[in-house]
């Protein structure tokens, strides 16, 4: 246990605050008081908005302690922010916002996966990925696991669909390392943790003992705590800690769980894990009504159902509106129906079969209207779960522009679940929330309900206030809790006293005073004496662009965004557009100009435009596509004509670039750097990169035309392999693919005029729409002829180019799109896995291979084929736990190398922590990006297969 408190200089204005905070951290560049950075960081998944006065990226517990001291000196509150996916307002504040995600992503698996040590910036999905190889996972399984972080999981005492109250964060946490507002660092894994706490913080230690005895000695307090925490309950502080633990250090550690950043900062947590049950059977049981659904729960749970998700009639109607509804709801005339999505899971097929057989009599007795079948097929199961998880998408995506999607959660005793559901539906009708739906974790009496709300008018805010008051009455009258999973935040802080009573509320107030006597940490969160606190600082959501207006600012996009640690995320790009619109409407020209000037680089130019964000977004917003459109909108007519001319003379342009690269390699490096730097300063920063030593020479010419008698495919060799030479002397991916085809006895056609054809990605990425259309017309017509009007598949040897070919028809008029609908584009790794590998000689195998999938292999869904080819040449294939898009993005990594450096930092460190026989990917510029990041020679996986079978 140590103390990290410092006495920083006093703050005076934004410059003085920046100086004060810079003294608290190792690198002043991690402190920002600029308007754009503060505004971008302000937005989270909640309906509240607080703009901080400063944003700091802390990198150690000592820095966090120093920042807490700095906040005291400045007289400002301090809020800790990790994933920003919390829904109740606990992740935002108007003082100092401390980012504890960017530098906090370490995971250490312990005891063969039985335990794991985690820092707060790692997402739950990333943690589980590290545990999966041991057949284990974290106990909490929140639906937001792809984006919510360990920091939020601890701060909110997360649970989820399967874990109940026995495997939540509180129950599975073994030890914590946390920083108190005084600067004291406590590690409860240390054998002397309690003695050290008593020595360092005697008043806190004694106060915890006093509060423990106060709660234990009151029969009424004990009864209230035991009743509320028998359910899922994240309302207020976890007072069950005073009953469950005796030592103050253990009590304090468990009080930190669910404290929402108001008592201290958790820098590290050790969790006990639970088994990963890979064998599952799932069924959607549609029942006549809510009563029948809830009546079925006890028998289903007794029969071993591990999951039981409730969907009300409104949810089923929403599910029916899906383009491809599941059979259980297709054609169903939904009246007062309800459904249970149940799942049985075991560690073996045999155990699952026994479990399902034992449950069959229970299932057969249910009054199900569409049957009680359970399915094991992964694809069918995924569709059933998509129905449940897609409710948020459907309601949020269909809401009126300018409104906010609110997702609330409550819990009530099981015997009161039906009545609570029915009365909630009555409240929706009474208060005009016709689009509201109810779903939730029925096995725990935990209901989620979703509604859409406009906060831009006083009558609408008053309607929300009336509904909230009525909902509070309903839940508390049922003996329930107002927050089961999502945390108290600001949304329910005014109602904590009512749920717990004056005595226990006073215990909470004293706990807060003991830990945070100056009230620095997250004031207004979890505890609030203002009865209208939940109605203040509500977020305005102006319409800015139909392509992004559906954004709910949930943050699911951020973990997959390669620029998250460098500039902005998709959520922030959209939030900044909204802030520009609000500044414009308010006539605040100074703020608008500052935001617009920053947006050009921080949002538009730095975006890798890889569109991984759309794969994570619950309302399918493609922010990358929006940024490409914004690039197009700022091009002049002259620039568009130049882009179009380049498309018309592409073969000549590629020859020129190849010649320039080869010439550059014989010129002195200082001369090249000076020349390219000067050109960039003249306004060509988005066209000409600063010269770097690792830029390759020009590549070989693209393959000559081939017209075999019985071709199996058309080979479209990507021009990127001609622009940039490959690692080594094998001729690159296209030459390797053709040799592999010859070796396997597979004939392929190479189209005429290939040198002048392209997938169109360079024009699409840069926003040269005229050139993109010109290239699309030429390339698709050539491939239409070469493929015999779509009879033959078109195979491309660069994954981003395969993806680009798939998108080419979208640039054309509808009539032309229909003409080319028969064209089939296949990536070379897929074609190789399916058609070449079975016919090739047995490869000579490497011992180990580091593999880099690309953002395009994700979009194409071909990661499996890529791994298959890699496994054919190596005994061990490793995809880094920290894998992500490299952000090289064609030439983006050349034009803005800082973006690729940031995007690849974690995976490069992981790769360089081990040694591999080879390094592979499936796209030339991604290979360049990873070679630059790691200093290791990345090559196309087909080059390795070619060598292994030669």
Q: From the helix content, strand content and strand pairing, which structural class follows?
A: alpha/beta
Strand arrangement within the widest β-sheet reads: 1-10-9-11-7-6
The end-to-end distance, rounded to whole angstroms, is: 61 Å
Main β-sheet, in a few words? 6 strands, antiparallel
Q: Any idea what the shape is?
A: globular
DSSP summary: helix tally = 39
Q: What ranges have pLDDT less than 50 throughout 5 or more consecutive residues?
A: 3-9
Give the tally of β-strands.
26
- Please, what is the average pLDDT? 94
Q: In percent, how much strand structure appears in the residues? A: 5-15%
Radius of gyration: 29 Å
Give the helix proportion (percent range): 40-55%
Key features?
single chain, alpha/beta, six-stranded antiparallel beta sheet, 26 strands, globular, disordered N terminus
What does this structure look like?
There is one protein chain. With 950 residues, the protein is an alpha/beta fold. It contains 39 helices and 26 strands.
Q: What's this, in brief?
A:
Helices cover 45% and strands 13% of the residues. The protein contains 39 helices and 26 strands. The strands form six sheets. A six-stranded antiparallel sheet has the order 1-10-9-11-7-6. A six-stranded antiparallel sheet has the order 13-15-14-17-18-16, sandwiched between helices. A four-stranded mixed sheet has the order 2-3-5-4, sandwiched between helices.
């Amino acid at each position: 246990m140590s103390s990290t408190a410092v006495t920083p200089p006093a703050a005076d204005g934004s410059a003085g605050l920046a100086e004060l905070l810079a003294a608290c951290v190792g690198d002043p560049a991690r402190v920002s008081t600029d308007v754009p950075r503060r505004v971008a960081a302000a937005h989270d998944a909640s309906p509240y908005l607080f703009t901080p006065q400063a944003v700091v990226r802390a990198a150690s517990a000592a820095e966090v302690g120093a920042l807490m001291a700095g906040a005291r000196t400045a007289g400002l509150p301090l809020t800790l922010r990790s994933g920003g996916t919390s829904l109740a307002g606990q992740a935002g504040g108007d003082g100092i916002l401390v980012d504890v995600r960017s530098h906090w992503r370490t995971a250490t698996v312990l005891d063969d996966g039985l335990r794991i040590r985690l820092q707060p910036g790692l997402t739950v999905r990333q943690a589980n990925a590290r545990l999966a190889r041991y057949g284990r996972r974290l106990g909490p399984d929140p639906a937001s696991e792809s984006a919510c972080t360990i920091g939020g999981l601890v701060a909110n005492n997360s649970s989820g669909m399967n874990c109940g109250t026995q495997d939540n964060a509180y129950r599975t946490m073994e030890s914590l390392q946390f920083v108190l507002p005084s600067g004291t660092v406590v590690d409860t894994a240390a054998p002397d943790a309690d003695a050290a706490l008593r020595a360092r913080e005697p008043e806190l230690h004694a106060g915890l003992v006093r509060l423990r005895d106060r709660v234990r000695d009151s029969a009424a307090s004990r009864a209230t705590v035991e009743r509320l925490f028998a359910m899922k309950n994240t309302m207020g502080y976890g007072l069950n800690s005073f009953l469950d633990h005796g030592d103050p250090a253990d009590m304090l550690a468990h009080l930190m769980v669910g404290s929402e950043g108001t008592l201290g900062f958790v820098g590290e947590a050790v969790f006990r894990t639970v088994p990963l049950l890979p064998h599952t059977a799932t069924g959607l049981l549609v029942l006549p009504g809510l009563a029948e659904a809830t009546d079925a729960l006890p028998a289903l749970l007794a029969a071993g159902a591990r999951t039981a998700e409730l969907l009300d009639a409104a949810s089923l109607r929403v599910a029916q509106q899906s383009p491809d509804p599941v059979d259980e709801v297709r054609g169903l005339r939904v009246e007062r129906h309800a459904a249970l999505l149940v799942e049985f899971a075991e560690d073996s097929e045999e155990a699952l079969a026994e479990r399902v057989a034992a449950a069959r009599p229970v299932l057969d007795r249910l009054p199900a209207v569409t049957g009680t079948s359970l399915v094991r097929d992964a694809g069918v199961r995924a569709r059933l779960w998509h129905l449940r998880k897609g409710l948020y998408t459907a309601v949020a995506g269909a809401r009126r522009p300018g409104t906010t999607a609110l997702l609330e959660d409550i819990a009530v005793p099981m015997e009161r679940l039906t009545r609570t559901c029915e009365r909630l539906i009555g409240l929706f009708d009474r208060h005009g929330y016709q689009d509201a739906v109810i779903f939730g974790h029925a096995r725990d009496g935990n209901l989620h309900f979703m509604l859409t709300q406009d906060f831009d008018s006083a009558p609408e805010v008053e309607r929300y206030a009336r509904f909230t008051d009525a909902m509070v009455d309903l839940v508390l009258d049922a003996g329930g809790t107002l927050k089961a999973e999502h945390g108290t935040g600001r949304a329910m802080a005014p109602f904590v006293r009512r749920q717990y009573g004056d005595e226990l509320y006073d215990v909470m107030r004293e706990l807060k005073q003991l830990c945070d006597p100056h009230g620095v940490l997250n004031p207004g969160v979890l505890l609030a004496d203002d009865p209208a606190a939940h109605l203040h600082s509500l977020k305005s959501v102006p319409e800015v662009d139909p392509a992004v207006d559906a954004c709910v600012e949930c943050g699911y996009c951020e973990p997959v965004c390669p620029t998250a640690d460098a500039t902005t995320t998709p959520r922030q790009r959209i939030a900044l557009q909204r802030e520009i619109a609000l500044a414009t409407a308010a006539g605040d020209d100074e703020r608008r100009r500052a935001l617009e000037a920053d947006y050009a680089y921080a949002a538009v130019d730095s975006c890798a435009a890889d569109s991984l964000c759309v794969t994570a977004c619950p309302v399918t917003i493609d922010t990358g596509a929006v940024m490409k459109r914004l690039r197009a909108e700022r091009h002049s007519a002259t620039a568009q004509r130049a882009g179009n001319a380049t498309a018309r003379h592409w073969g000549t342009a590629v020859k020129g670039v190849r010649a320039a690269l080869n010439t550059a390699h014989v010129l002195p490096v200082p001369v090249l750097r000076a020349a390219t730097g000067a050109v960039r300063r003249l306004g060509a920063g988005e066209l000409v990169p600063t010269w770097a030593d690792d830029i390759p020479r020009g590549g070989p010419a693209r393959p000559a035309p081939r017209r075999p008698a019985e071709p199996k495919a058309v080979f479209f060799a990507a021009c990127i392999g001609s622009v940039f030479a490959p690692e080594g002397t094998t001729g690159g991916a296209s030459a390797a693919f053709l040799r592999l085809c010859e070796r396997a006895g597979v004939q392929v056609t190479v189209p005429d005029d290939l040198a002048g054809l392209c997938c169109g990605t360079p024009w699409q990425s840069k926003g040269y729409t005229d050139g993109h259309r010109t290239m699309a017309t030429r390339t698709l017509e050539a491939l239409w002829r070469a493929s015999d009007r779509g009879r033959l598949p078109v195979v491309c040897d660069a994954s981003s180019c395969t993806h680009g070919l798939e998108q080419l028809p979208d640039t054309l008029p509808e009539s032309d799109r229909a003409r080319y609908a028969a064209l089939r584009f296949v990536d070379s790794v897929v074609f190789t896995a399916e058609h070449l590998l079975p016919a090739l000689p047995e490869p000579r195998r490497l011992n180990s291979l580091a593999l880099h999938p690309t953002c395009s292999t994700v979009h194409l869904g071909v990661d499996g084929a890529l791994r298959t080819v890699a496994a054919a040449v190596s005994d061990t294939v490793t995809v880094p736990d920290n894998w992500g898009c490299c952000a090289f993005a064609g030439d983006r990594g050349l034009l803005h190398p800082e973006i690729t450096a940031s995007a690849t930092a974690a995976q490069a460190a992981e790769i360089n922590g081990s040694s591999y026989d080879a390094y592979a990917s499936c796209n030339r510029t991604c290979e360049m990006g990873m070679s630059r990041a790691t200093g290791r020679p990345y090559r196309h996986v087909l080059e390795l297969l070619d060598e292994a079978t030669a």
